[in-house]
Design a protein that fits this description.
The complex is a heterotrimer. Chain B is mainly α. In chain B, 74% of the residues lie in helices and 3% in strands. The chains are: A mainly alpha, B mainly alpha, C mainly alpha.
Chain lengths: 102, 510, 622
């Protein structure tokens, strides 16, 4: 197979994953946290696709479908939570919500 | 079979009490009292009918024995057996259990059913400890005593000063005994596995483990594991922290049980398990144990003098008295070991008497702080005189059981360890100091507040007379007691002293 | 017959104690008194019966075996011989008279039942002490009398000082008792028996004369005797013990309990003869005590304290007698002392009640006309105390002691004894003059209410007064064959000389007293007021400062110790474990802060660490 080499695809996936992880660790707003999670999931999905293309195996693509489903579910639950959060606290900053002593 | 019933009667009695609360406040009390008396009566019948002469070579050393397999895979059995010592202690448990029910007759008004459930479950556990011969079963009962005692302190206790709450005291009691119990579990398991690797038989049976051939170095650590578990419960000085708090915060019945019986389980454990299982190591350990006993005598006495809470004072005196027991157990003479048993019985009577009396005082003046007492001799009829009797018993006045016990211990120990006896005798002066100090602060001197208070009613008077009678009876004619336990004590002493001889021989050979 | 009578005389007081103790407050004062006094009276009759039935040989009765474990076989058994009979006679006879007097003295006091319960328990314990055939049972009586003494000194419990006096008495004697107990342990281990007869039998076979063990055993027993008999250095409790009612002082702290130490040493004479050095020490301690107490008695203002110190001094004489091996003389003086000191105390009690509980010498005075009976009692008792030649009981017994001391060639002890006689004269005269002569010092002394009751007041005083004269000395049977020969039995040279010497000492004392207290009164006052004289007075008044010594040497350090340990530092040490757990908890709880970001960071960190370590180990593996 010609075209994009597998390494490039994997590097892209790793970069996306790192970006998502950085967003998850640095942002306080729940919206951005959810978006970061989404990016990380998609990065993982991308890695599956790249892998499946490289080895000509369909498993990776099946996995990607699973990841998409998961991401959709996660987004819906997360957004619903966010709306509840905003209604209760008038803020979507996660730090404000923490009640643990820590 | 009767041995099993001795354990089950209080157990079922407890469940019955719990349910009986719906029939009224009095029902659980009567049921509990009846149950305790039943246990007492059963053990007395066994005592009267029993033959306590030293058994022949082929005869079983046990008066009664009952065993069925329980978890055969691990060699665990339900193995109960009774000899003179167990019998005495079971009878004592029944008696003090009955007293505990009686003395909380008016004191406990909330959750009466559950209170008596706990009281009876403690009894069940204690009787189990005294009867169990399978080490696993022993451990089970040992731990089973703790939980109801925890509830007794935590739910019905008094909260003293801020920071000294009953929950705290209960937790402390639980952690101390639980942690030390786990140490014992480790020792038991190690012993069993060593025996398994030697013989290929997995068993928790006492008789089998007596002959377990444990390597010397390991045996010492195992002995230490058992010793520390019992030392916490006795209590021996560095591990005594739970006792004053638990006593001070516990309800009267809890203190009576705690001082009267629970502490004795520790001495029983040393006598039954720690020494016979590891006689040579115990022999080697004896100087340390005796030193700890001496420290206990003095430390307990000194701290008793500094207390303001009357129950804390009595608690510290227990530490002091138990120091004598510890010395006696490791003295290696029959006289001393018998003396230790007499002290155990005597201390059960005298400390129970003092705790019940301080409970009665609390019911009248609503305080246990001795700074708020004084001059009670003129304000309460009879009670101070009764207190004086138990104070005299506690300081070892001749004609009381305590005197017999302490002097047998001292006489018996003098031959082997005169220096220990010389130091311990100073404890007799200290005993007089703390006992009379208590009398002084509570009953003598100027009246702290005015007004006459009610004397003891028939129930209170009867309890006291019973204890006084028993203290005097054992003090003047202890022989029946001594004869009962002799056949149990003699082999232990023989084991202990033989091992000393063997050790000496071994050294000579080397 | 005799044993029955003996057991009876023990059981009667015990029975009455139980009856009184368990009656609560249902018995009125009248019934309590009747039971209390009556039972001791009956016990005295039983003792008289035993005396009559006494055949000359000692008899034993074993009631039951107390404990039997191995060799340890003490019994509850009584042995009656001459010595115990004499002691029984004193305890029940003098005891009865004192009980009778107490019926007058204690009338109207609260808690009569308690008083008689304790008194009769005391009589019982004391009888057990003198009748016991083994040391452990003797110890029962020994501790029992101590407890009764405690209960009776603190009889007026409302005043805390009385209770502290009782406390002190108990603790100080208890210190002595511990020595006695140790002595018992040693004797049991060495000789293998506690039976007094066997101990005395076996001791010479087990121990060589003057051997270290024998000396230690005798020393330990001596320790017990010192505590009970209030000899230096364990004597400080006796003057404070006067806080109790006066009949108690008469019975316990003069006639019987404090002489228990003398009895004990006399009873175990064989043991002490094996330890001649210790026996000498007994005499030296006696001499020191008699001088020390004699001086201290000079500077007391409380009449009962004067008598307390004089008791201590007289017991010192008994110890001197024991010290030279004259056991018979010691018991002789014990007997006459019981008579005349009981008389003195009861007379003092009569004065005290008549003057509404006034016992300061400065506030009494000039009472001889109003209180003739008490005055007579004091004169007769005082005469016996100073050992007035020929007419008094004290003369015969004290003369015997001095004579034996001289015959034993103990010049130091003899000089102490003679000096003591001078001192006795001084303080006795001072006491009598202070109470009965001169000007009344207070309102109560000006208008006393003399005791009138013939039966309960006059009778005991009169009987004791008769016994304090030479008649009492004649009554003493002598214990001759019971003890080894005293040093003075062989020789008789110089006895007359000594009697003259002793009489001279007595007369010197009396004359000096008369001159000082009658002629030079003002001068004496001025000396004592200020300067060295005042310091001297304070020193003597505080009896040479032993109390301060004990206070700073023992009591205060003990209190500091108690205070310092109050926090239970060992327990604190164990709490350190809990502290560590808590600190760990506080540290770890910070990680559970609910911030998703930190969780994510930590997770990334963890994953990185795991990956790196995996890579490294793989790398190392290949």
């Amino acid at each position: 197979m010609n075209g994009v080499p597998m390494e490039h695809g994997l590097v892209l996936a790793a970069t996306l994953f790192s970006l998502g992880l950085a967003g998850l660790m640095l942002r306080r707003s729940m919206l951005f946290v959810l978006m970061s999670l989404e990016i990380m999931l998609n990065a993982a999905g991308l890695a599956f696709i790249v892998g499946s293309t490289a080895w000509n195996q369909p498993d990776g693509q099946a996995m990607f479908l699973l990841v998409i489903t998961l991401a959709a579910a996660e987004a819906s639950v997360g957004l619903a939570l966010m709306i509840q959060l905003y209604q209760r606290f008038h803020s979507i900053k996660l730090d404000n919500v923490s009640r643990m002593r820590g | 079979m009767i041995l099993l019933w001795l354990i089950l009667i209080p157990f079922f009695g407890g469940l019955l009490c719990w349910q009986a609360e719906r029939w009224g406040q009095q029902a659980p009390r009567w049921i509990a009292l009846g149950t305790m008396l039943l246990v007492l009566a059963a053990s007395l019948v066994l005592w009267i009918g029993g033959d306590f002469s030293p058994p022949g070579v082929s005869e079983s050393p046990w008066l009664l024995e009952w065993r069925v397999p329980w978890i055969p895979r691990f060699g665990i059995e339900i193995h109960l057996a009774m000899d003179g010592l167990s019998l005495i202690l079971v009878a004592l448990a029944g008696l003090l259990g009955a007293l505990a029910v009686l003395c909380s007759w008016n004191e406990i008004v909330e959750r009466v059913g559950f209170f008596h459930l706990n009281l009876l479950f403690i009894m069940s556990g204690v009787v189990g400890v005294f009867l169990a011969l399978d080490l696993f079963l022993f451990f089970l009962f040992w731990e089973a005593m703790l939980v109801p005692m925890y509830f007794l302190i935590a739910l019905w206790g008094h909260s003293g000063s801020p920071g000294q709450t009953r929950i705290r005291a209960a937790t402390r009691f639980f952690i101390y005994t639980q942690a030390s119990g786990l140490l014992m579990l480790v020792a038991i398991l190690a012993l069993v596995f060593v025996n398994y690797s030697n013989t290929g038989v997995m068993t928790f049976s006492y008789n089998a483990l007596l002959n377990a051939n444990v390597p010397d170095g390991l045996a010492f650590w195992l002995m230490l594991g058992f010793f520390i578990a019992f030392a916490v419960k006795l209590p021996v000085v560095p591990f005594h922290g739970w006792l004053p708090d638990a006593h001070a915060q516990a309800p009267t019945a809890g203190s009576v049980d705690l001082a009267g019986i629970l502490l004795k389980t520790a001495a029983y454990g040393i006598l039954r398990f720690a020494i016979p299982l590891f006689p040579e190591q115990s022999q080697a350990f004896a100087p340390v144990a005796m030193t700890l006993g001496l420290v206990g005598i003095f430390y307990g006495a000194i701290l008793a003098c500094g207390q303001q809470d009357i129950k804390r004072l009595i608690a510290y005196t227990s530490i002091s008295h138990m120091g004598f027991v510890l010395i006696a157990l490791y003295a290696g003479s029959e006289l001393a070991m018998q003396g230790a048993i007499v002290i155990m019985v005597a201390h059960a009577f005298s400390s129970a008497g003092l705790f019940i009396l301080s409970g009665q005082l609390y019911e009248r003046i609503k305080t246990r702080d001795m700074r708020l007492m004084g001059g009670l001799w003129g304000r309460i009829p009879t009670l101070p005189g009764l207190t004086l009797f138990f104070v005299a018993a506690s300081l070892g006045m001749p004609a009381t059981a305590n005197f017999i016990g302490e002097f047998m211990v001292l006489f018996g120990t003098f031959d082997n360890a005169p220096e220990v006896v010389i130091i311990a005798s100073a404890g007799l002066v200290l005993a007089a100091i703390y006992s009379l100090l208590m009398m002084q602060r509570v009953h003598f001197g100027g009246e702290y507040s005015q007004g006459r208070l009610a004397g003891p009613d028939a129930r209170e008077y009867a309890m006291m007379l019973l204890l006084i009678g028993l203290t005097l009876a054992v003090g003047l004619y202890p022989q029946p007691l001594l004869d009962t336990t002799a056949s149990m004590v003699q082999p232990v002493v023989a084991l202990f002293t033989d091992s000393a001889g063997l050790a000496a021989q071994a050294e000579e050979v080397e | 017959m005799m044993t029955v009578a003996t057991v009876l005389s023990c059981l009667l007081p015990l029975a009455s104690t139980l009856a009184l103790a368990f009656s609560g407050e249902r018995l009125g004062p009248r019934a309590s008194t009747l039971i209390g006094v009556g039972s001791v009276g009956l016990a005295a009759l039983a003792t008289a019966w035993a005396l009559l039935a006494y055949s000359g040989a000692s008899q034993s009765v074993t009631l039951w075996t107390w404990v039997s474990v191995g060799d340890f076989q003490p019994t509850i058994g009584l042995t009656v011989d001459r010595l115990s009979l004499v002691m029984m006679g004193i305890i029940t006879g003098v005891g009865f008279l004192i009980h009778l007097f107490a019926a007058w003295y204690m009338a109207g006091e609260a808690g009569i039942t308690r008083f008689y319960a304790w008194m009769n328990l005391f009589v019982f314990s004391m009888l057990i002490l003198v009748l016991a055939d083994n040391l452990l049972l003797l110890f029962l009586g020994w501790e029992g009398v101590g407890l009764c003494s405690y209960g009776l000194i603190g009889y007026y419990y409302q005043d805390e000082a009385n209770n502290w006096a009782a406390f002190k008495a108990f603790i100080v004697t208890r210190i002595g008792d511990v020595f006695l107990a140790l002595g018992m342990f040693l004797i049991f281990v060495e000789i293998g028996s506690l039976d007094i007869g066997q101990v005395l039998d076996q001791a010479p076979r087990v121990w060589a004369e003057g051997s270290a063990t024998a000396n230690i055993a005798a020393l330990l027993i001596l320790g017990g005797a010192l505590g009970k008999s209030a000899q230096v250095p364990l004597h400080t409790w006796l003057p404070d013990a006067m806080a109790g009612p006066t009949p108690v002082s008469a019975l316990i702290h003069a006639a019987t309990m404090v002489t228990a130490g003398v009895y004990l040493i006399a009873r175990l004479n064989g043991l002490f003869l094996l330890a001649p050095d210790v026996l000498l020490l007994v005499g030296v301690i006696g001499a020191v005590s008699l001088l020390l107490a004699g001086f201290a008695a000079l500077a007391q203002t409380d009449i009962k304290r004067v008598l307390a110190y004089s008791t201590m001094s007289q017991i010192g004489y008994m110890f001197v007698a024991l010290g030279v091996g004259a056991f018979d003389a010691a018991i002789f003086h014990l007997t006459t002392h019981a008579f005349f000191k009981a008389l003195l105390f009861l007379s003092a009690g009569s004065v005290i009640i008549s003057c509404h509980h006034e016992q300061e010498m400065g506030k009494l005075g000039g009472l001889w006309r109003q209180l003739p009976v008490a005055y007579a009692g004091f004169l007769v008792g005082g005469a016996a105390l100073v050992a007035l030649p020929l007419v008094s009981a004290g003369f015969f017994s004290k003369d015997e002691i001095l004579w034996q001391t001289m015959a034993a060639d103990r010049a130091g002890l003899l000089i102490a004894g003679l000096l003591g006689a001078v001192l006795t004269g001084l303080y006795t005269v001072r006491l009598i003059l202070g109470i009965f002569h001169g000007e009344p010092g207070s309102h109560h002394a000006r208008h006393p209410e003399p005791g009138k009751n013939l039966f309960t007041h006059h009778l005991p005083l009169i009987v004791l007064a008769v016994l304090s004269t030479f008649l009492g000395a004649w009554l003493y049977p002598g214990l001759g064959e019971l003890f080894p020969a005293a040093p003075g039995e062989a020789a008789d040279t110089g006895h007359t000389l000594l009697q003259v010497l002793a009489t001279g000492a007595v007369i010197a004392g009396l004359a000096l007293a008369g001159w000082l207290f009658l002629m030079r009164r003002q001068w004496l006052h001025s000396v004592v007021e200020k300067g060295a004289g005042a310091r001297c007075w304070t020193l003597l008044n505080r009896a040479w400062g032993f109390d301060a010594l004990f206070k700073w040497g023992l009591v205060r350090p003990w209190q500091w110790l108690v205070h310092g340990l109050r926090c239970d530092f060992i327990n604190r040490g164990m709490n350190l474990l809990a502290l560590i757990a808590r600190v760990g908890n506080a540290g770890l709880v910070r990680t559970q802060n609910g911030r998703v970001r930190t969780y994510a960071c930590v997770m990334v960190l963890g994953v990185t660490v795991i990956l790196i370590s995996l890579v490294l180990t793989r790398g190392g593996g290949t």
